[in-house]
Amino acid sequence: MTSPVWVPRKRRGAEFFLTVLAVLIGIAAYASVGLGVEGRIPADTYKLGGALIVLAVATHLIVRRVAPYADPVLLPLVICLNGLGLAMIYRLDLGRQQIDPDRAAFANSQLVWTAVGIVAFAAILIIVRDHRRLQTLTYTFGAAAIALLILPLLPGIGQTINGARIWVVVLGFSFQPGEAAKVCLAIFFAGYLVVKRDALALAGRRVMGIDLPRGRDLGPILACWLVSVGILVLQRDLGSSLLFFGLFVVMLYVATERAGWIVVGGVLFAAGAYFGYAAFGHVRVRFEAWLDPFADPDRNGQVINGLFGLAHGGILGQGLGQGSPQLTPYSFSDFIAASMGEELGLTGLMAILVIYALIVERGLRIALTCRDAFGKLLAAGLAFSFALQVFVVVGGVTRLIPLTGLTTPFMAQGGSSVVMNWAIIGLLLRISDQTRRPAPEVSTFASDEETQVVKIS
Amino acid sequence: MNRPIRNIAVACLALFMLLLLNANYVQFVQADELNSKNGNKRVINEQFSRDRGSILVDGKAVAESVKVKDEYKYQRLYPEKDLYAPLTGYFSYIYGRSGIESSENDVLSGSDDRLFVNRVVDLISNKQPKGGSVELTIDPLAQKAAAEGLERLGDDTKGAVAAIDPRTGAVLAMVSQPSYNPNRLASHDFDEVQKAWKELTTDPDKPMDNRAAQQILPPGSTFKLITAAAALENGVVTDIDDKVKAGTTLKFPGYGYTLPNENGGNCGGNTITLERAMNVSCNVAFGGLALKIGQDKLAEQAAKFGFGTDPIDKLPASASRFTAPDTKLEPPQLGQSGIGQYDVAATPLQMAMVAAGIANDGDVMKPYVVDTVRAPNLRVLDKPEPKLLSEAVSSTTARKLRDMMVSTVTSGTATSAQIPGVEVGAKTGTAQSTKDRPPYAWFVSYAKDGDNEVAVAVLVESSDTARSEIAGGRLAGPIAKSVMEAVIGK
After folding, report:
1. Of B2, B4, B34, the CB nearest to A307
2. Considering only CB atoms, which chain B residues are within 8 Å of A250?
């Protein structure tokens, strides 16, 4: 007799239902943008809405086919955010072009990038049938991360945009390799820490109450991280260096189960922040803009405008297409959270934050239920970096913390960000499919039974 | 590894809680403060895009918002261009607001607390909030008559007219020349607005000042009404037939200065009646009276007519002055002050209040310009009651002053204001300022005809008229007359 094996339900139907809701939210957002800005449902609704339906159905079918046991909530949440982001970018295109008809429109290219992102998402699910195979490529990913980070520094293809040298332009397409480096680094950290976690946790000397690991265990990962952050500091990318640091510390903590790493990380972060404040003018400017933006309204115009937008939105918001988010510089990328807060109000912004929180907690749940250490670490790292990214960018825009340049996942205009975040969701769904999939039927079980038919009467 | 992952889940939750709390702080707690910050274009845009209420005169809009097809949706329009500009003020995207547009902004923009219910209804029915309307006390015929009267003196005329209803204080006309076209400042073509603003603010004639309420100038002989009032009230003379000292000059023993009459005459004798002194505007007589009354009593009388206080709400205005505070006047200065010279300075509105107080049996009413304030649904939100400013003189004194003003019109310097069959009283003034500029022509008058009453003050600061021709009666009198005719319907 087979013992009853608990088989998780696939719940693809639930996912489909939620996906329909998410797509409806996106299409409704388009329609109300048109109504708000132009007083009619825009012709683009059918085009953009149709594209959204096609993309959502495609993702759903791919998941149903190649990852049937994957978490059913993540995908609809992401589609909802992506749809809202597209609608807001479209809205801001209209708003900015009202001021100056020659301004570039971003909605269409963002839609193309979304499609590319979904291709990347599908590719990961289809090619990586088992996430544990990524572990064999640990050092390859480590090297790739460094290589990607160096790319923008290379003359010819690297470009400085808005003071940060984090862009690569090839054949007219600009891309931020740092986004891809983040994922590569997470895989490298996970692969390395799985192997070394016991050594890191147990072997070593005790100095002042803290167990320090041996240099040869910590060395490679420390070196890799230092190089990454060093490059980012060179590129003046504050947000990403903070993100990579957080990722590193947290994955070390999860792997070793030693809270001391968080303490060490916190102290190092404080020291680093102070050093940055003392050494770099642009860090100081950010700090001052955070403490008192109104002391220098000309310089801190963007932060002030973002706050004005949020206040203007109030509790219920101005309504899509009826506020003035286009007044804020970079309202379509860095400050899209402020744009959402202005037009959807506190209510809408809180709903969006809850969606982000749900994505993070779903990711961490995947980490919890994952049976292998590599998957656990990778899922935890990806989920945490996602949370940290949302916190840093939304906190920066709403003046909870100093502003650092990071993208708002799935909503901000920017190809690299959308593509890599879809890739991250692909990885999470892959791990969750592995986790929830019932263990393969062990055929030897039956034959064992047969050999044991000796009945003792 | 599950324990650290659980801890991280809690930590992430804490991060998101912080974001949510902060969003509440910014969008709810701090919102009002942020919305009222300077340079908040969103709030300016929003006010600019609202269906702002109208400013009405006799039911017709003199400032209204009309729908347009641009991003601001509504354009502020002033159909009468510069005629009502001193009252309405302007409503500009770049330069803010002035006049009634500014003082009644809460009602006009619809953000007044009394319109809260309307706003909630608008919110629920998803309508744009509408502003309430403000009806002015102005009589359009009087306003037009005043403006046309000043215009008739030539393009370069600078001057002002203020007319009030003596019984209530309601302002019936308020004209300032030169004026400006507020449409230029309300335009949505901001380059044009900036150009207009530069022109208007650098114009030496200050077209954006409301000369009728803001500019104080020596009132000259029209101030003799106050000197006469003080003399009668304080028993310096008991009746208008009492003799007062006249002659060609007033001497101040111990001072090298003598006060002459306007045209060097002797006012018709060395002693004349008070009425005669008023009719011919005898400087020697009123200078002498001022010395007898004394500075304190004279200042007190001026204050009772409203000198030294901001005369009107809702509009920018200047207080008139009898003398600088804490100044002890030397006799020659006091003598000059008694005839509205030296440091005495008044607005046309203030002088209209003097005439109104005399016409209203001595009671000066507080001038007001906003008649009714209505919600968008025409419900009356506010209708100010006439307010007594002060009892300036007794009704007996007022009667005596009126008699003198009437005889000044029938047989004195103010004959230009005669209206057949109507009681008209007036006092002229030709005030000196500095030697190198022409004198100011003043005319202060009232008319009573049955149920109609009006008090008018006209100031012609400068015009194309030759210097020798300038006299209050000749220049300003006909303007006052046409305004009075407009009000009493003759």
Report:
1. B34
2. 8
Residue A456 confidence (pLDDT): 61
Is residue B440 within 8 Å of B469, Cβ to Cβ? Answer: no
Count of CB atoms situated within 10 Å of the CB of A115: 17
* Residue-range domain boundaries for chain B: 213-370+386-488
When pLDDT is cut at 50, 70 and 90, the band that residue A210 belongs to is low
User: Nearest by CB to A297, which of B35, B39, B71?
Assistant: B39
Nearest CA-CA distance, residue A312 and chain B, Å: 7
> How far is B127 from chain A, CA to nearest CA, in Å?
12
Do the Cβ atoms of B16 and A353 come within 8 Å?
Answer: yes
CB atoms A356 and B16 under 8 Å = yes
More confident residue, A333 or A163: A333
Q: Contact, A165 vs A236, CB < 8 A?
A: yes
ipTM given for this complex: 0.92
Q: What's the fold here for domain B213-370+386-488?
A: Beta-lactamase (3.40.710)
Interchain pair A257, B8: CB under 8 A: no
- From B315, B273, B252, B356, select the one nearest B97 (Cα to Cα): B315
pTM score, whole prediction: 0.70
- Set of chain A residues whose Cβ sits within 8 Å of the Cβ of B40: 308, 312
More confident residue, B40 or B203: B203
Does the beta-carbon distance from A346 to B9 stay under 8 Å? no
Output the six-digit token pair for B74.
């509504």
Choose among A378, A383, A349: nearest CA to A364: A383
Annotated active-site residue in B221, B281, B445, B482: B221
| C-alpha count within 13 angstroms, C-beta hemisphere, residue B105 | 14
Distance CA B59, CA B187 (A): 24
Distance from CA of A432 to the nearest CA of B (A): 15
d(CA A64, CA A254): 31
Range from A54-68, B99-113, B428-442, B462-476 carrying the lowest mean pLDDT: B462-476
Is B13 in CB contact (< 8 Å) with chain A?
A: yes
Q: What angle do CA A159, A160, A163 make, to 5 degrees?
A: 170
Nearest CB to B19: which of A257, A380, A394? A394
For residue B37, the chain A residues in CB contact (below 8 A) are 294, 304, 308
Name the average pLDDT for chain A.
86
Asked if B388 has any chain A CB less than 8 Å from its own CB, the reply is: no
Average pLDDT over residues A248-269: 86
Res. B214: pLDDT tops 90 = yes
B102 counts as catalytic = no
Residue B144, pLDDT above cutoff 60: yes
Q: Which pLDDT does position B364 carry in this prediction?
A: 97
Distance separating alpha carbons of residues B18 and B148, to the nearest angstrom: 67
Share of chain A above pLDDT 70, in %: 91
Q: Show Cβ contacts of residue A109 under 8 Å, excluding neighbours closer than 6 positions.
A: A415
> Given CB atoms, is B24 within the 8 Å cutoff of chain A?
yes
Among A260-269, A310-319, A372-381, the range with the most confident prediction by mean pLDDT is A372-381
pLDDT for the residue A200: 79
B119 contacts in A (CB within 8 Å)? none
Three-state secondary-structure class, residue A369 = helix
At residue B162, the 3 state secondary structure works out as: strand
CA–CA gap between residue B340 and residue A453 (Å, rounded)? 132
- Cα A294 from Cα A288, distance rounded (Å): 10
C-alpha to C-alpha distances, A354 to A164, A384, A395, B18, B29, nearest whole angstrom: 31, 15, 14, 12, 20
Is B8 in contact with A254 (Cβ distance < 8 A)? Answer: yes
Do the Cβ atoms of B41 and A313 come within 8 Å? Answer: no
pLDDT value of position A208:
67
Quick one: angle between helices A177-202 and A138-150, nearest 10?
140
